[in-house]
Every structure is written in C-alpha cells, then in structure tokens.
Amino acid sequence: MAFTLHGSSEFTCTRRVALIAKERNVPYRLITVDVKGGEHKQPAHLKHQPFGQVPYIIQEDGFELFESRAIGRYIATLGSGPELIPTEPKAHAKFEQAAGIEYAQFDPVANGIVKEKIYKPFFEVATDETKVQELTAQLESKLDGYETLLSKQKYLAGNEVTLADLFHLPYGSIVFEELGYGSLDKRLNVKRWWKDISSRPAWQAVKEGA
Ligand SMILES: N[C@@H](CCC(=O)N[C@@H](CS)C(=O)NCC(=O)O)C(=O)O
C-alpha cells in the first residue's frame, strides 16, 4: 500500500525510509518538509511527529508512523523483495543483535559527526572540532568491532543482508564517503561490507534524492 513520506531528501532519516521502500518496491510520494524554515516545529507537523523531527509516513488507509527505523521495519513487511528481517528465531535474534549494534554503537558516533560537520553548518551554527576529534576516535574503535564481526560473516546478522546493514547507509555514506572518516582501507572486511551494501541499486537511487 502506497504512503506519503513527510521529510526532506537531504536528511538521513528520510533517506533511511526511502531506501527500505525502494528495497521492498513499495511506492511512496515524498512531501518535502521545510526543515531549514522550521516547518517541523509547527503545530501542523507536531500533530504527526510530536518531537518536531522528520520523517513520518501516512499510508493510504490513514495509518501513520514516525521513527525511521520503526518505519523501515514496517515497510519491510510490505511489498516484495529480499527478506530484510529474518523470522526463524535464532536468525531473528542475530538480526536484533545487529540492529542493536547499528543503533547503540554506530549511530551515536556517526550521528554526532554528521551533526557537527553537516547539520550545524546547515543551521549556521559553529562546528565543535574538539567534539569531532573525540567522535572520530570513537568511530575508529567501533570499526574494530565491526572488523571482528565481519571477518566471520558476510553481513552484520549473518550471511544474508538485513535491515541492520541497510540502516547504516544514510549516515555511513556521509561519514565514510563524503567526510572521509573511518579508515576502511585498514579494515578490509568492513571495506568489503561497505562496498557491498552501498552499491545496492536502492541506495544508489536514494543517494540521488529520496
Ligand atoms: N530517531 C528519529 C530521529 C529523527 C531525526 O533526528 N531527524 C532529524 C533529521 S535526520 C531532524 O528532524 N532534525 C531536525 C531537528 O531535530 O530539529 C528517526 O529515526 O526518525
């Protein structure tokens, strides 16, 4: 069932949702929220996303959802395409472990770097370079953990790609590719994994605009 995606193609969390919709061949229409102009803090937006952030979706039947990962999990049950959330109990447990790695290990660091280097300048706020240095050191250490895991298996949850891998793409592409942080050349398994997931057609399409 088609949905409208309320967000901005420049923003990572909107891209995360668009990516999963493209992976699962679920049609959607992007309705751009003027984040720079503060539209996401207005009452009309807060009725749908009470924390004043993007994105949220509204389905044709009126069903609404916000939080990009929750939306991604929901969309993964719709449409057609690769099974992105394994259902067999042990495979599912490994998927939850991998999703936890993205959310608890990667996101705070990558999100912090992007906030400092991209979003603060976007909102005309000065970057805290000391904080960037701390975060990039943390990123290096986190990537050692990824290297250990990915030296034993193809993807974070096992040998099949899952949402947990794909959820890395919006922030990873900025941090690794645009900003050049995270020494992937020193970690060949992370490099292989990144090349694999970032070359997926769905992500290539989203990179050009959600
Ligand atoms: N956990 C939320 C985070 C949403 C979020 O941080 N959105 C950012 C853009 S990527 C935003 O709206 N920033 C503007 C603000 O917080 O004022 C999700 O995944 O949907």
What binds here, in terms of ligands, is:
glutathione
* Spatial strand sequence of the major β-sheet: 2-1-3-4
> How many strands, which pairing sense, and closed or not: the largest β-sheet?
4 strands, mixed
By CATH reckoning, the class of the largest domain would read: Mainly Alpha
Proportion of beta-strand residues: 5-15%
> Helices and strands: which structural class?
alpha+beta
Topology order in helix (H) and strand (E) letters: EHEHEEHHHHHHH
Number of E strands? 4
Rg over C-alpha atoms, rounded to the nearest angstrom: 17 Å
CATH topology of the largest domain: Glutathione S-transferase Yfyf (Class Pi), Chain A, domain 2
Q: Average the pLDDT over all residues and give the rounded result.
A: 97
CATH architectural arrangement of the largest domain = Up-down Bundle
Uncertain segments: none
Count of individual helical segments: 9
Protein name: glutathione transferase
Enzyme class: transferase
Keywords: Transferase
Domain GST C-terminal: 88-210
Task: Give structural attributes.
210 residues, alpha+beta, Glutaredoxin, Glutathione S-transferase Yfyf (Class Pi), Chain A, domain 2, 2 domains, four-stranded mixed beta sheet, 9 helices, 53% helix, binds glutathione
